[in-house]
Design brief:
By secondary structure, the chain is of the alpha+beta class. The chain contains five helices and three strands. It folds into two domains: 65 residues, Arc Repressor Mutant, subunit A; 38 residues. Helix content is 65%, strand content 12%.
């Protein structure tokens, strides 16, 4: 039976999977390391890794009996493109706040200089 690749948004909706990606952002890790960090069982961690692997967000590299999991950032590009207008909106708002605070400092200095 064919199951479609989940969207990056559906994959990232799960906090544990986001935590796994955060850990893999630091460096590749073994499943046991991830299990220890997450406080999950090994089968529980493996389920999340399978979803991430199917979405293309992690790759597995075999080294003898061990499996190293590595971050693949390319599938996150869709999320990045979606977030871009929101980043611009926040940058505009933060810029307006900075200008307002600068103006407040100017007004405060002028008030202090008034005899």
């Amino acid at each position: 039976m064919f199951s479609p690749t989940p969207s990056p948004f559906a994959v990232l909706a799960e906090p544990t999977r986001r935590q796994i990606l955060d850990l893999l952002l630091e460096r590749p890790r073994l499943v046991g390391e991830l299990t220890d960090h997450l406080g999950l069982s090994q089968p529980g961690t493996s389920k999340h890794l399978r979803v991430l692997r199917e979405a293309g967000m992690v790759a597995v590299r075999r080294d003898a009996q061990r499996r190293w999991y590595e971050l693949r950032a390319q599938p996150l590009a869709e999320v990045d493109r979606w977030l871009e207008p929101y980043r611009r909106a926040w940058a505009d708002r933060l810029g307006a706040l900075a200008r307002h605070l600068d103006h407040m400092d100017d007004v405060s200095v002028a008030d202090d200089e008034t005899p």
